Design the sequence.
């Protein structure tokens, strides 16, 4: 029987509560689909600062590197807000992404049918089911390029540089084409090739990689147009691939279309397809410890893990179907509407398990 080694980084705030429910669901899926999961825990964020003085202890990095995958809750909270930048919980997050070489960030924007009304987009615009996957390059581009301050004609000035190498573009393009092959074979590459030289190299490279995937229909959009199209007709998109900075902005825009922060999962993958899986929301200190956090984003992060790192697509589908079914009748307070039953974090986890 296949056995997977998983590291849990429960983190701070609601992190431990939501990860516990996701583990419960993963164990149920493992029983049902005939595999086993071995868990180890490690510290990241505020809890790591309290225990060791740093947000990302070396032991955490070593454990995560040795695992098949990592599940993260969330980090941060007011207790650590006054620490200097490099000692804050969020520094641990950036550190673990770097240490694991996670260059591909996958951010699905999905609207479950029963939650359609939560979307800020209404009527016909959101008429079709929405299921977009944004593939964002995560370790290159302007966030990592040369930067600095200088004097220009006696005026203080600052600069940041967008730089991409062909291998960097090729590897993220391949992740996106593979993703498209497993979905509807439709890929939109987003750039600003009418203005930026780095975008022209991006576009040339994506076109060259597309020859390896003749079945995928590739089109290109400028980033400003893509931002407009996402709110005008989001149903036209399937997989979107783009650079670090454009992906940062577009993935947030796409996820807001779904209307509920407690529902959105994400994955970051490295060359070996090992990944870090986490909800996109934070540690929600305002509701921590109350047993009312929505665990579905973390549960859906587990389903992404099963699909993209552990090669258990049937188990992933079963979790997604169970979540869709539960939402018809039961909701945590953040997504509650009249006519449904309000449930706690734990009850939501139990309900998903009962439908797998
Ligand atoms: P947040 O996402 O934690 O919370 C924003 C709002 O959404 C809050 O009202 C919260 O109660 C609600 N919310 C979030 N997740 C929810 C869930 N699962 N169920 C129900 N309601 C939920 O963002 P914030 O308040 O800006 O940040 C709080 C802390 O989290 C900060 O320290 C921040 O730095 C950190 N943070 C961490 C991550 C991460 O770990 N990846 C991401 C974003 C923010």
Sequence:
């Amino acid at each position: 029987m296949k056995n997977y080694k998983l590291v849990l980084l429960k983190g701070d705030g609601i992190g431990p509560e939501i990860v516990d429910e996701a583990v419960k669901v993963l164990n149920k899926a493992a029983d049902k689909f005939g595999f086993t999961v071995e868990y180890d825990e490690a510290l990241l964020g505020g809890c790591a600062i309290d225990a060791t003085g740093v947000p990302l202890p070396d032991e955490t990095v070593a454990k995560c590197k040795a695992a098949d995958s990592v599940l993260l809750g969330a980090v941060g909270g007011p207790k650590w807000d006054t620490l200097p930048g490099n000692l804050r919980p969020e520094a641990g997050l950036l550190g673990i992404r770097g240490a694991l070489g996670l260059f591909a960030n996958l951010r699905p924007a999905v609207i479950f049918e029963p939650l359609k009304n939560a979307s800020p987009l209404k009527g016909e615009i959101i008429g079709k089911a929405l299921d977009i996957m944004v593939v964002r390059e995560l370790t290159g581009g302007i966030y990592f390029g040369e930067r600095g301050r200088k004097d220009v004609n006696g005026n203080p000035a600052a600069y940041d540089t967008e730089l991409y190498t062909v291998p960097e573009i090729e590897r993220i393009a391949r992740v996106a084409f593979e993703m498209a092959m497993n979905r509807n074979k439709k890929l939109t590459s987003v750039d600003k090739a009418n203005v930026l030289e780095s975008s022209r190299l991006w576009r040339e490279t994506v076109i060259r990689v597309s020859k390896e995937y003749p079945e995928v229909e590739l089109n290109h959009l400028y980033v400003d147009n893509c931002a407009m199209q996402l709110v005008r007709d989001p149903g036209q998109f399937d997989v979107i691939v783009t650079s670090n900075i454009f992906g940062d902005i577009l993935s947030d825009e796409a996820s807001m279309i779904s209307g509920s922060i407690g529902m959105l999962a994400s994955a970051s993958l490295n060359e070996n397809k090992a990944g870090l899986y986490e909800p996109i929301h934070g540690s929600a200190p305002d509701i921590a410890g109350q047993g009312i956090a929505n665990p579905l984003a973390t549960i859906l992060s587990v389903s992404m893990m099963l699909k993209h790192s552990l090669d258990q697509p049937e188990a992933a589908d079963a979790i997604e179907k169970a979540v869709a079914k539960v939402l018809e009748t039961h909701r945590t307070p953040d997504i509650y509407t009249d006519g449904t039953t309000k449930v706690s974090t734990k009850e939501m986890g139990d309900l998903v398990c009962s439908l797998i």
Notes: The pocket of nicotinamide-adenine-dinucleotide is lined by residues 14, 74-77, 90, 93, 261-262, 278, 281-287, 293-294, 297, 334 (CB under 6 Å). The longest helix spans residues 15-33.
